[in-house]
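Intended use. Records like the one below are meant for learning the mapping from a protein sequence to its folded structure. Do not use them to infer anything beyond what is encoded.
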Amino acid sequence: MKFTDGFWLVREGYQIQNPTDIRDIVQKGDSITVHAATKRILVKGDTLNGTLLKATYSSPMPNVIKVTLNHHKGKVDHGPAFEIFNQDTDVSIHKDEQGAVLQSGKLSVHVDKTNGWDIQFLYDGKRITGSGSRAAGYITGPNKEAYFREQLDLGVGEYIYGLGERFTPFVKNGQVVDIWNEDGGTSSEQAYKNIPFYLSNKGYGVFVNHPERVSYEVASENVSKVQFSVEGETLEYFIIGGDNPKDVLNNYTTLTGKPALPPAWTFGLWLTTSFTTDYDEATVNHFVDGMAERDLPLSVFHFDCFWMKEYQWSDFVWDEEMFPDPEGMIRRLKDKGLKICAWINPYIAEKSYLFDEGMENGYLVKTADGSVWQWDLWQAGMGLVDFTNPDAVEWYKSKLSVLIDQGVDSFKTDFGERIPTDVVYYDGSDPVKMHNYYTQMYNKAVFELLEEKLGKNEAALFARSATAGGQQFPVHWGGDCSATYESMAESLRGGLSLGLSGFGFWSHDISGFENTAPADVYKRWVQFGLLSSHSRLHGSTSYRVPWLFDDESVDVVRDFTKLKISLMPYLFHAAKESTVQGIPMMRAMMLEFPNDPATFGLDTQYMLGDSILVAPVFNIEGDVSYYLPEGTWTNYLTGEKVTGGKYIHENHSFRTLPMMIKPNSLIAVGAVNDVIEYDYADGVALHLFELADQATAEAKVFSTKAKEELAVTVNRTGSELKVSAAGEGKAWSLVLRDIHEVSGVNGGTVSKGEQGLVFTPEKNNGTYTIEL
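Structure written out for the chain above:
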């Protein structure tokens, strides 16, 4: 939201009061509060009839500083509020006549009392950003509405990322972004997942602690600032420091919640009924059996909206005309090795029997006169479950619990964005704040039920909407994209932006949701989709099984599904990292290579985990240009070696793409490629790529229950490889990629393999040496 007219003028109807003259700095416990007048105070009489703004600095955890800007503090806050995970923190405060310094870990805020309004944030002694003259401001509008804004400095060459799953340009500089959840598809500035957190390539992040609309001007209203503003008397934000961007995400997700670990089965291929298609059990079996007949490993079958009868969403009752025996059908599908997902939303149509239950018991959101809020958009006469009412939450859970007992393993928690603001909530929550926050309560309720019924690390959603903290309830998918290369690229931009907003796991509708893709788009999107965190074939009005596109589509789905399954030892380790460090599985290049300026704007390629670079192909010709950082990289699919430090231009068939392995990598490859859940450590082959002198490569392998079963480290000194292994004692081997001769080994044997020599240890735990 813009308040100025160019650099010099204020927009007509607005008045801005900036903190100008710091009157005092008060220490209270581990915080300091700065009182600042909005004009120069020359005599005591100047203190009358004026405004005094307050800024309080504190620290909820190491390397994080909370800033609370305030005008009048008497306004009642009706909530809701983001959950903040505070920690005991050692804070040091130094005050003198010049000002004050508050230090938390390596992060500090410096208040200069002698220079007007001059606030500096430093990390490890280096300035990262600050708020200077005319930056912070209390603003009144044409109708006496109040706003608070902050403007934080942008340095030369500084780029801003994140702010949720945004499909606009990846680097947010120059953009106006409103944090306001909307059902707007993937081709507009609207977003399903608006997160008031941004990440700077300079190594810090900023989280604005407001669930309501936050308006950002990112190098737009003032091209050397990031401005954010909210309506009201208070603005609160956190400066989050770190040694690098990964460390910042770790600190941010420590503050707002770590992603849960999805079950191993969720990483396999999902197939759906699609949205408005006609289907019954025979149709479902036709597709499931067709996948099996073509040797296409399938992990999950998803029933989209019309598993329930039309006009009755959501009543959580199977349409008996199409599914007369739902329990038997689910049992038969599970006998084929499948997990089951069912579509839901938080809306209750008037025709649903649940509407009367909800209305009678006060479980639905109301209007000011006590009526049930209703409209006809989406479902005729629909109401909205009031998740601020604990009894309504338990009621909603009880209906889903029946489905879990029938055999449903997961729920696609669709919608949650179109939330009205002219309503009344059970607990008195501010409806404007609830607009974005509603999705958090909705997804949390469903996720917690799955954990209660199925156990820890057995819960998984397929969620569309989110707000800050939503990363705790994975998985999220990218919403309604179109069946084009352009939409495929915008989906990737959205996923990378979401990953830089603290979300670890993300998916998208392979080949696009709207319309039906031509075969070339389908095949290219399959490659991208099966080299994503999670992989789902889904559409709107047509089915997405590959044989409906062409014969080669079947081969491509088979190739890349089996490839992903074989990489599960590597991928599940990356997933585990996401839950511990708060970093995404699909990583923007700048996250993995923060010191390489060439990576800062890259949004058509990504790192899958820390070692695999993926560059999807976005055209029918098969041409692709991508950037490789320094070193010798290896195409995992073709074995071709490419020297980095430059852009690469290639042409690929539908069976290959740039899937490049970073030098000094140890990739764990499983012994199975036809079922997603298996013993990842038993028979695992550890592929060693381009290990340099004095370098180390490491790999860990976890069980499907997230227990570490094998850890292998390879160190190189000159021509000697020193290999150390510890774990459960399961069989493993080391593949020396493109090494075809060694002068000696100790502790095992070597044999010739298709991709290089294979070292097999005599004992599965211990230390071994290989002389090259």
